[in-house]
Amino acid sequence: MKKWILNLLQIVIIIFFTLLGQFIVSFFNLNIPESIVGLVLLLISLHMGWIKLDWVEAGSAFLFSEMLLFFIPAIVGIMNYPWLIGTKGILVLLAVIVGTTLAMVTTGIVSKTLLKLKAVKH
Questions:
Q1: What is the 3-state secondary structure (H, E, C) of 45-108?
Q2: What's the CA gap between 84 and 74, in Å, rounded?
């Protein structure tokens, strides 16, 4: 029971940053997704030490583990486009796989380079 309450409180903190991002985007009339602004604010707060990682770690791990539930409506929406299951669908799938692979490889190379730079710096 205590674990669920802790997770809920941590999710509330994450939602607070999302709502703060929504407020900032609407107030300044920005063309940036509100959730991205909220996550950047959370990242800055974590980096500056205003928010401790322990305050959001378990809640974010729970949300991440249940992420598939957030994609079910999108997957069901594919049923409205039967052409995605045919030849064009294979091309779309290939594009998604290639794009995902490139993003993962690029992220890995950048992370490895940054870790090397950090090691050289120390």
A1: HHHHCCCCHHHCHHHHHHHHHCHHHHHHHHHHHHHHCHHHHCHHHHHHHHHHHHHHHHHHHHHH
A2: 13
Phi and psi at residue 77, in whole multiples of 5°? -65, -25
Q: Characterize 21-58 residue by residue with b for buried, 16 or more Cβ atoms within 10 angstroms of its Cβ, and e for exposed.
A: beebbeeeeeeeebeebbeebbeebeeeeebeeebbee
Is 41's pLDDT higher than 90? yes
**Polymer length of the chain:** 122
Which amino acid, one-letter code, is at 88? K
Which residue, chain included where needed, has tokens 């903190």? 13
Which whole number is the average pLDDT over 87-111? 90
pLDDT at 37: 92
Greatest Cα pair distance, the chain, in angstroms, is 55
The pTM of the full predicted model, rounded to 2 decimals, is: 0.57
Q: Residue range 33-51: average pLDDT?
A: 92
Q: What's the whole-number mean pLDDT along residues 78-92?
A: 75
